[in-house]
């Protein structure tokens, strides 16, 4: 489900529904459907809802291409912070898939995800199979 005001997303809640069945503003739903084709979702959102640190973390995460992953520690090194701080920022990501935090993993395992690790694995497998095989 996508929460929104007019054409601006305020929060995205992932479920096991197909992306094509997500409820919300038709423009936003159309852009989610594009994820299945391009691996990227572009939805306008209010960045004033985020802290400056979150914006830095989320900008870094948005640069990760579909089918690729990066660790919390690698992002921490780029931003000169701790992996825990990166994880806490991503834990508060109100826009999963738009800000593809599922592409951030732990150095030891897959790491967490707001919609659950089974959805994270599903997204990573989809992207790996769909976008790196071209």
UniProtKB/TrEMBL annotation:
<keyword id="KW-0808">Transferase</keyword>
<dbReference type="InterPro" id="IPR014048">
    <property type="entry name" value="MethylDNA_cys_MeTrfase_DNA-bd"/>
</dbReference>
<dbReference type="InterPro" id="IPR036388">
    <property type="entry name" value="WH-like_DNA-bd_sf"/>
</dbReference>
<dbReference type="Pfam" id="PF01035">
    <property type="entry name" value="DNA_binding_1"/>
</dbReference>
<feature type="domain" description="Methylated-DNA-[protein]-cysteine S-methyltransferase DNA binding">
    <location>
        <begin position="52"/>
        <end position="128"/>
    </location>
</feature>
<keyword id="KW-0489">Methyltransferase</keyword>
<dbReference type="InterPro" id="IPR036217">
    <property type="entry name" value="MethylDNA_cys_MeTrfase_DNAb"/>
</dbReference>
<keyword id="KW-0234">DNA repair</keyword>
<dbReference type="GO" id="GO:0006281">
    <property type="term" value="P:DNA repair"/>
</dbReference>
<dbReference type="GO" id="GO:0003908">
    <property type="term" value="F:methylated-DNA-[protein]-cysteine S-methyltransferase activity"/>
</dbReference>
<keyword id="KW-0227">DNA damage</keyword>
<protein>
    <recommendedName>
        <fullName>Methylated-DNA-[protein]-cysteine S-methyltransferase DNA binding domain-containing protein</fullName>
    </recommendedName>
</protein>
<dbReference type="GO" id="GO:0032259">
    <property type="term" value="P:methylation"/>
</dbReference>
<dbReference type="InterPro" id="IPR001497">
    <property type="entry name" value="MethylDNA_cys_MeTrfase_AS"/>
</dbReference>
């Amino acid at each position: 489900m996508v929460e929104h005001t007019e054409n601006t997303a305020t929060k995205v809640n992932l479920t096991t529904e197909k992306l094509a069945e997500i409820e919300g503003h038709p423009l936003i739903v159309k852009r989610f459907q594009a994820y299945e084709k391009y691996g990227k979702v572009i939805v306008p959102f209010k960045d004033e809802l985020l802290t400056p640190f979150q914006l830095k973390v989320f900008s870094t995460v948005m640069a990760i291409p579909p089918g690729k992953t990066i660790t919390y520690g690698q992002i921490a090194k780029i931003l000169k912070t701790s992996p825990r701080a990166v994880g806490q920022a991503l834990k508060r990501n109100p826009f999963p898939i738009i800000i593809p935090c599922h592409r951030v993993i732990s150095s030891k395992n897959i790491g967490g995800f707001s919609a659950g690790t089974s959805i994270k694995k599903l997204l990573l497998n989809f992207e790996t199979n769909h976008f790196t095989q071209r």
